[in-house]
Each structure stands twice: as structure tokens, then as C-alpha cells.
Amino acid sequence: MAVTPKVPAALNTLRLLSHLAAQRGPARASAIATALDLPRSTVYQLLAVLVEQGFVVHLPEERRYGLGVAAFELSTGFSRQQPLSHLGRPLVAQLVDRIGESAHLVVLHGRDVVYLVEERAPRRPSLVTDVGVRLPSHLTASGRALLAALPAAQLRALYPDKAAFERRQGEGPGQGPRSSSELRALLTRVRADGFAREDGEITPGMASVAVAVRDHTGWPAAGIAVTFPRERIAEDLWPALAAELAGTAAELSRRIHGRP
Questions:
Q1: Which of 28, 44, 94, 140 has the most neighbouring CB atoms within 10 Å?
Q2: Domain extent at residue 19
Q3: pTM, whole model, 2 decimals?
Q4: C-alpha distances in angstroms, 163 versus 18, 104, 151, 166?
């Protein structure tokens, strides 16, 4: 049963900020009022307070409103406190205990993934994916899972041309996609399979499968992957392995109030 809000102004303020955060650009007050089913006068009053406090900026020429610097500071505070690491670490550790292979949690940063959590299974080889390491997202299973969950426009912005696929020294021996069309084909398979894979493209003889963790807007907030020696798990068993990851991803999504 729904709980009746005791502080409707606070609830509507949070709804308004959440709505702006889910948009791909600034929005008109009238559109916000329609989307939230609120009187325009209420929306304008809330916007005025939020603009004054720096959480929203008004673009008078466009007659639109977008998130302000204070909202950005909240997001950086989220990053500093690393709640994804704290919430994800025990879940990744439990996953490793169940499957007996190493696993990690990553976030997307530009065209790279950054490793937040790394849990190595007993008697498994060391990996290049230590905490804080950055790797090209189009070469990693976790990165591919995240890219597959992005809108097409965001993907085009990240990979506008072949220069975006140029390899950097130390990236690893794998080939991976070398153009936007190759990347789109690869991500189409990820969506069809329901999980991403990588086979020797980071470290020879090692393979990975991965799934995305979605936030409350459906945006890919993180990726969870399992990495294992290629000869230990036959490829026809990878979907079952991905199903184990999906359960972990769904639980982490629930903990951040996201969409499974």
C-alpha cells in the first residue's frame, strides 16, 4: 500500500529533480508540470527555489530548466562516498563464493571502464583488472554490457569515428571492434544474448561474461563480470554463468533503487 506523503513539497521537489536528471537536456516548465501531473504554479514555485539554491539553472533564451552546479556537487559526493563499491563488494564476494571464479564491478567513465571492486577466487591467476585500473570499454565484457544499454545517440557521441577505436600502448593483444559498424553489430549480439562476452581480447587464455546494473532511470550504473581461464568453462555454459551474474546485478540494482 502506498504511503501518503507527510511533506508533499519535499516529495515534489525530489520528483522534479529526478525528472530533470532523467532528461537528455533542459526541459520546459510546462513539460515538467505535465510529466509530474502538478499545477504549473507549483512547478514554477519549486523551480524558483531550486534556481535560488543552485540545484537548477534557468535558460531564459530557451525557456528551459536544467540541473545546476549544486546538483552536480551531490553527484560528486555520491562518487566520493563510493556507495556502489560498498553495496557491490559483498554481493560480488558472494558471487565468487558460489561460482569459484574471479569477478569484478566496474563503472563507465568516458570510453573506459574503471574497476571499483575486484574479488579473486582462490587459486585463480592474477588479473589486470585491479581496483582503479581503466580499460577500453569496447574491449571488455563489462564495458560491452554497459555500452549495449546506452541510447544510440550516446553511443554515437562516444564513438563518432574510427579514431575512437585506436589502440593505446598496453591495451592488450585482442582485436575487438575497429569501427562504429563493428561495435554496433557486437552490441546487437549482446542485447540478443542478454549478456556480454570477451574472449582473450584483454588477456590471452582468459574469457569474461558480464551484465549491466541499471539505476532508477534504467541507465547502466555499473557492470558486473566474471573472468575465468578459457579452458575451464565451455562456451555453451556461458549463458548459465551469465544468469548467475544477472541475479547479482538485480540485487545490486534493487539496493540502489534501480530497475532490474
A1: 140
A2: 8-75
A3: 0.69
A4: 35, 28, 21, 5
